[in-house]
Write a structure and sequence with these properties.
By secondary structure, the chain is an alpha/beta fold. The chain has 15 helices and 17 strands. It binds adenosine-5'-diphosphate, aspartic acid (ASP) and magnesium ion (MG).
Length: about 475
Amino acid sequence: MLIVMKFGGTSVGSAERIAQAAQLATASADQGHRVVVVTSAMSKVTNLLIDAAQAASKGEWDPAVRQQLFERHKAVADAIIGGDAARRAAVLEAIDRRLERFEKLCYGLSMVHELTPRLLDAISGTGEMLAAPLVAAAIEARGRRSRAVDATDVIVTTDQFGGAEPLMDLTHAKAVALLQPMLEAGAIPVVTGFIGATADGVLTTLGRGGSDYSASIVGAAVDADEVWIWTDVDGVMTANPSEVPGARTLPEISYSEASELAYYGAKVLHYKTILPAFRKRIPVRILNSFNPSHPGTRVSVEGHPSASGVKAVTSIRGVSLIAISGTGMQGIPGIVAKAFDVVAEQQANVLMISQASSENNICFVISSSDAPRVVKALGAALEVELSRGHIEEIAERPVAVVAAVGDRMRGTPGIAATVFTALGDAAINVIAISQGSSERNISMVVDEQESARAVLALHGAFRLSEA
Ligand code: ADP
Ligand code: ASP
Ligand code: MG
């Protein structure tokens, strides 16, 4: 089999974790599989890089950051490479070169005081380029050939900095040309997650948490047999285990369930991960690098039936509900169209929409970081309706979206009733509700402070702790 294995930040967060990742990759290679590794940055490094870039753009560049990053990565190199002085020097040289570039970029920022999305990508993508040489060295320390590969040479993307999309034909050609010969020579390429480059070679990132997406893109590009996402929990669970102690691993879910869960807040998978694998019907596994004997979750076409129809409960925070309301909105055509034109112009992603049939209120949920911009633009675009009193108010409030997800919710009666009884019993006010016509998801808008309780209440009501 050809397996693309992705290791997340905690799975490469220390010398021991990197050694374990190398062990997992080489164990599969020893069983006769061809393996491509995709690595994240070491845990917390991406945040540190972003903070440094933001500080630098305010004229507060702290040169100690470079040293701090160097020390952390050097300590790993020292631990995993041991006595091979030439190899150690080569790895440290590669790391230093990346940090040199990082420092120069930050220094430039501190002069111009302006952080563009393009520059932020150039800086925040450094973490993966620091980790890959270490992971490759750890694999070589286990006696197998390996090479760090910058995804800028593999994944060709659009120029949407901060959330670039892969151009799959170009990516396929580059991935095959670069990775195939390494695989044929019995080596394990270690590709940087999170980043890519435009056709002109400008570095881009795929969005926060995007290394999962990188793995699926690389998997599709090289026609992998499977994509394995190694993380720090036993797979995709019925809820976030840090919020719901009784959360249970789902042994099998469908591509559509995985996408829906990721989209509605299950951080274990980046929300775009599934699509490239799905297009080629490549099974995706989510596995725990801290507990590798656990079978984890398998994502496939069929998924697996579940008694209640609901498989998992998720939540998204950091979002705002925008409500446009007015008794005079009835029968005035075009308000909805105008509102969504504004949202599109502002490039805000709508997570959920709800409109009462009385037509005197339309509300939708967007990221809180987009909300002030969108509300301002709505006020301008709907000025006439506001001045005539057809619209009385455009309001914004911070909320959370809680969602119950499962393919077999479709055609299972009583799910909405269970949801409302559970939330009612817990005295949680539901501000808005939406059910997609796919019937794979019911999502509720609740007060931000109520979201953890709402998730617990729904998880309990659908008895998701029970197999
Ligand atoms: P990585 O660094 O490996 O990419 P992430 O932190 O991005 O790991 O994702 C794993 C985390 O996702 C888990 O530690 C857990 O806290 C969180 N999580 C949220 N929802 C779920 C869920 N439904 N199932 C499993 N993990 C979840
Ligand atoms: N290192 C990147 C981030 O923290 C990508 C990832 O870990 O998936 O967002
Ligand atoms: Mg992640």
